[in-house]
Amino acid sequence: MKFETPSSEHRPKEECGIYGIYGCPEASNFTYLGLYSLQHRGQESAGIVTTDGERLYRYAGMGQVAQVFDKDKLHQLTGSAAIGHNRYSTTGASFLRNAQPIRVESNLGAFSLAHNGNLVNSWSLRAELEKNGSIFQTTIDSEVIVHLMARSGHTEFLDALCDSLRKISGAYSLMILTRDALYAVRDPNGFRPLVMGHRPDGSIVFASETCAFDITDALYDRDVEPGEVIRVDASGVTSFFPFEQRQESLCIFENIYFARPDSSIFNQSVYEVRKNLGKILAREYPVEADCVVCVPDSSTVAALGYAEESNLPFTMGLIRSHYIGRTFIEPEQKIRDFGARIKYNVVKSAIKGKRVVLIDDSIMRGTTARKLIKMLRRAEATEIHLRISAPPTQFPCFYGIDIPTRTELIASSHTVDEITRYLGVDSLGYLTLEGAHQAMKITRPDQNWCDACFSGNYPLALQDSEERGNQKDLFTEYMLEESR
């Protein structure tokens, strides 16, 4: 039995976070705060575009929100409407030219666009556009939308936008800003979340998650519906449904892993869903033990649910450092499991002599999980029973989540018994797919979920060839950039 053990674990990466506000004199400041709350969705770059009705003002930079913006930069972003973006690259490498929102001058006037998601036909569309003379400034799939709009032949902005969106396929929640209007768009499948609210001053607010509303005193009104285009301008709020209706395919992994537990997305509480995941996991895979321990932070609420359902004490047996960045120093005398120790540390007094149920939300390659198990063993846990609050991740995602290729996913080629032996645990239990779907049914049992990363049932086919897949393009672009 052969296992691949690369030097670093690949956790599923947060996609992107978007925020928009219209009708607020401090639009740039509130957008900054909204992006700050959405930092968990992307840490590679951040950007804000504002308008004062005459011009669009843009600033973007590499790094986290607090690193990119300061008081002076925000002061220069004038106007009462703004959109913002935190980026994690799922298409296009991590360079400044790919930072969003992108801003363009076109025959439709100046506008800016921020995108969360991933288009499954962007490369084929890009090749056709380039063949017809389009010149791309970035390698992100979002730029395809801009070129399609410019070539649509429509003179009205909304007509050009809807025409271009009918040509693309995939996952997209969009914020688009013109000189005089703000547009919010969600794809017909509704893969990625997008919520709408308002502030006491009457300004209209949009965000990927409701946690971005709380910091800016905005009240949640509703989700932007799948296939809906909302325009906000001086005349008010207008809603359009210009696309052929499809069955919704809400990303199940948003509730399991990505969204903050204090958010509501897809019309329900992330906290309640995750607690349900833990409770159902306890019913499906009970075990005699002394305590329940989470791998912080994304599995904490599921661990609380497991502990509550199984009548076991919840113990903070692992502590996560929230101040880690890239470290350039490792002692010459190698430290065992150095990478995992930078991020996590074991509370030995809570673990020693205990039968531990360890809760995590997913296993990708398994390398970090294996290191954590070794750390718990060294802390003298007598038994370790690993429980995963999601089904086995066996397939990559093409809709905006950076999940490894199938050959890298340990569950795609190894049985649970094999993974149990590799990780060095006494037992391993994954939540069943049926259990995951059951946990999602809180406020709307009729909702349909995209579970392709677990089941391989993709709601939309990948239209681009796999040779033009994300990882190859990122690697190729990186090599080109390094050679310049």
Quick structural summary:
With 484 residues, this protein is α+β, with helices and mostly antiparallel strands. The chain is 29% helix and 24% strand.
Could you explain the architecture of this structure?
The chain has 484 residues and is an alpha+beta fold. It folds into two domains: 16-249, Glutamine Phosphoribosylpyrophosphate, subunit 1, domain 1, CATH 3.60.20.10; 265-324 and 336-453, Rossmann fold (3-Layer(aba) Sandwich). Helices cover 29% and strands 24% of the residues. The protein has helices at residues 27-37, 65-68, 71-76, 122-131, 142-150, 157-165, 211-214, 252-258, 270-284, 300-310, 338-343, 348-351, 367-378, 416-423, 433-440, 452-455, 470-483, and strands spanning 16-22, 45-51, 56-62, 81-87, 102-106, 109-119, 170-178, 181-186, 195-198, 204-207, 219-223, 229-233, 236-240, 250-251, 264-265, 268-269, 291-294, 318-320, 344-346, 355-360, 383-388, 427-430, 449-450. A seven-stranded antiparallel sheet has the order 3-2-4-1-10-9-11. A six-stranded antiparallel sheet has the order 5-6-7-8-12-13, with helices on one face. Strand 21, helix 14 (416-423) and strand 22 (427-430) form a beta-alpha-beta unit. Helix 9 packs across helix 10. The longest helix is centred in the middle third of the chain and has 15 residues, at 270-284. The two termini are 42 Å apart. 50% of the residues are buried. Mean pLDDT is 88; it is low at 1-10, 326-330 and 466-484.
